[in-house]
TrEMBL record:
One of its GO terms (cellular component) is membrane. GO terms for biological process: lipid biosynthetic process. The chain crosses the membrane at residues 57-86, 107-126, 156-182, 224-242. Residues 74-338 form the Fatty acid desaturase domain. Keywords: Membrane, Transmembrane, Transmembrane helix. InterPro entries: FA_desaturase_dom (IPR005804), Fatty_acid_desaturase (IPR012171). This is Fatty acid desaturase. The lineage of its organism: Bacteria, Pseudomonadati, Pseudomonadota, Alphaproteobacteria, Sphingomonadales.
């Protein structure tokens, strides 16, 4: 779940940068990852449904409190709870892209109805996009919708990366409340909207194809729902004033900024466009395992194990911690697996920021 940012394309590193040596695959790590996790690939409805529903219910209850409380302190606290709970509920969009067909009946529909449409991030914006990020020949290349060599860009690219996320609610209202109805009337605009404004991606060069078959039907009702919600959201000003809309947008913006910070430290962003081995992809990605105390908050629903997820994309979020423990206990100390584990967000932000300082 990332925010499209066309301006960042101008921040790419200079062409005379030194090429990096290819990293070969580590057969022992890949074999262990496959063998030790065979029993962990089944999504458990008894975990998914309560986690998702409780997060959404808490988020909306807290959002209502932020609007209704007269006390500023209580309103701010409620707003923070809403932001974190809805962020967790929204993060299940990542699971939707990997869940096997039929594994969780009704989950995609429920998620879109309760979270995707009300937050204007329907799952079609991520489905058939995120899986390309996992493709063996796409990761880290110009064809990867979720990759930019951020560590090799100019210093101003990182604050810009976050600022764009803060403006996401405005962009989403324009996307669904303005561009959707206009594009229904203007075929040439529709082609542009589908190709350039229908993906939660960060690569400004990425263009997606028009949907087909059953996915096209899912896209249609999800987009229609988000359009109606965006128009109703703006229209609510006439019935309830500006306060509910501004609080909703503040919570949404905060949620998106946290996710963008999480995205910033999900990878080291050091690849310059060449295809990478699976081991190289792993080492360019990040785990923040326990005992890091806050990672479960800013990287919920298994996202703290992002590097491991690139090794095992079919393992559901509730199996990743067990998979990590098994691999840590089994692999030798010199295994590349251990080099993909980091202590927290701030050391990673510092590492990437220091790298950009050499690109002035």
């Amino acid at each position: 779940m990332t925010v499209h940012d066309p301006v960042l394309a101008a921040a790419h590193r200079t062409p005379d940068a030194q090429a990096r040596k290819p990293i070969p695959d580590d057969a022992a790590m890949l074999r262990a990852a496959a063998e030790l996790t065979r029993t962990l690939s089944t999504a458990n409805p008894a975990i998914y449904w309560p986690d998702f529903l409780a997060s959404a219910l808490l988020g909306y209850a807290a959002l209502a409190g932020a609007v209704l409380f007269d006390s500023t302190a209580l309103a701010v606290i409620s707003g923070l709870v809403a932001m974190l709970a809805l962020y967790r509920a929204a993060s299940f969009i990542h699971e939707l892209t990997h869940i096997r067909e039929g594994a969780l009946p009704g989950f995609r529909f429920a998620w879109n109805l309760l979270v995707g449409i009300p937050l204007m991030i329907p799952s079609f914006m991520y489905e058939e996009v995120h899986t390309q990020h996992h493709a063996r020949t796409r990761y880290g290349t110009a064809n990867d919708p979720e990759y930019l060599p951020l560590a090799l860009m100019k210093p101003w690219s990182l604050p810009l990366f976050i600022i764009v996320a803060a403006l996401a609610p405005i962009g989403l209202i324009l996307r669904f409340g303005v561009l959707t109805p206009l594009s229904v009337l203007i075929p040439s605009l529709r082609q542009k909207v589908v190709a350039e404004f229908s993906a939660l991606s960060i690569n400004p060069a990425y263009r997606r194809r028009a949907p087909e078959g059953n996915f096209a039907r899912q896209w249609a009702w999800q987009e229609a729902g988000a359009c109606v919600f965006a128009l109703a959201l703006v229209g609510s000003v006439f019935a309830f004033g500006w306060k509910p809309l501004l609080i909703y947008m503040a919570v949404h913006s905060g949620m998106t900024v946290i996710n963008q910070l999480r995205t910033l430290v999900a990878h080291l962003w050091e690849n310059e466009g060449d295809a990478m081995t699976v081991t190289a992809q792993y080492l360019d990605s990040v785990n923040v395992p326990p005992p890091s105390p806050l990672a479960a908050i800013w990287a919920p629903v298994g996202l703290r194990y992002h590097a491991l997820h690139h090794l095992l994309p079919s393992v559901p979020y509730h199996g990743l911690s067990k998979a990590h423990r098994r691999l840590i206990a089994t692999l030798e100390a010199d295994s590349p697996y251990h080099r993909g584990n980091y202590k927290g967000m701030f050391p990673l932000v510092g590492k990437i920021a220091r790298s950009t300082m050499t690109r002035r």
